[in-house]
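Task: complex structure prediction.
Instruction: return structure tokens for all chains below.
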Amino acid sequence: MSDLTEEISSKSTRELILDEALHCFADRGYEGTSLNDIAAGVGIRRPSLLHHFPSKEALYTDVFEMLLSEWLEGLEVAMASPASGWDKAELVIRAGFDLFARTPDYVRIMRREALDSGVHVGVDLSGFLRPLFDNACAYFTAEMDAGHFRRHNAQHLIITGYGAILTYFSDAPFIDELFNDQALTPEHVRDHCDHVVAFFRAALVV
Amino acid sequence: MSDLTEEISSKSTRELILDEALHCFADRGYEGTSLNDIAAGVGIRRPSLLHHFPSKEALYTDVFEMLLSEWLEGLEVAMASPASGWDKAELVIRAGFDLFARTPDYVRIMRREALDSGVHVGVDLSGFLRPLFDNACAYFTAEMDAGHFRRHNAQHLIITGYGAILTYFSDAPFIDELFNDQALTPEHVRDHCDHVVAFFRAALVV
DNA sequence: TGCCCTACCTACCAGTAGGTAGCCAGTTAG
DNA sequence: CTAACTGGCTACCTACTGGTAGGTAGGGCA
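Output:
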């Protein structure tokens, strides 16, 4: 019992640090975030933070691996669905929206990582995402070959969809200003999701 | 004449600094770029750089204003064209691709600025872009009302297009890895442009 | 010749970054 | 009861940041 309590309290501080780090890195980027910022957000001093993580880079890598595992899990479940044709595409798009709306901070970190060419993270990003990408390519190609979808270049099609969906979350503060409203309210996210689904359906389904 | 020579040499150093700063800020962001980096790229010392620009922030703002004026000029010309219907939409999309392919560093800076909510730049970003945004909204709404385009939410439609086009340039290093090829070669840019045009045409044109 | 100006330099400032050493209170284990 | 471990702390380090002070080489000009 005491063992468990200690474990919980230890894990709790660690998780508090991870949560705060996630938020700071998403908000101000790797270079723009100091360990002091994160420690202050948790309510401890920097050396105490470094007691839980050996370095800033290690902390960032841990945050990023949380992101990757969450994305892989969420998207693989959707892509493994037995649905087919447009139903499956819509299912994956909506799963992506759910996932990203739940964790917009992850989206912003991923965007920053893409901009920085992954210099801060030790993991092989493309190695992680390539299977998903190839899987999606194969799916669209098969559906186009079967005549269910209009013919498009599958690779470029996926990049287009990726950009269309992620941008709404990564650039939310910017969109707030253009819309003169909060982009990330559940209503607006649903509206945008419905729009993207309708848009892609119109573009794809014969 | 000697006056002119002096002017030219002065302007030249200033422009070298602006060019190097543009590249560094696009590559590593505002926080990730030091004035030493920029000065070293130009081949002078930091204090000499600060002789031409009063502060890092002022330098960044100058770079960003170059970006804004180039974008406004390029896009306003396209949007002012007398074309109508799909022809005009395609013209604007292709003008955007030309513009962004010519200056991918600008795209990455704009993306970073959207992520950072514009904290580094003193200009009113949404104030600058709102007229373009409203103009595009009005255009699409009119075309949809006239029955030339399928009905979509104009605001979300523009965000979708914005994300689809910009992502290809801002995330180019990332796409390189997924494609196992250089995304920004003229051939690939043209391919992606053709794809986006065909995709949007299929989604929009009745 | 003497003066001002531009563009650069070295040397330095205060502040902050990430990271380390070592102390200390509280808990746990033997 | 004591020893060990935990997780926090203060104090310190080095490296580097943006920015300033002061000096200098050299061109234009009266």
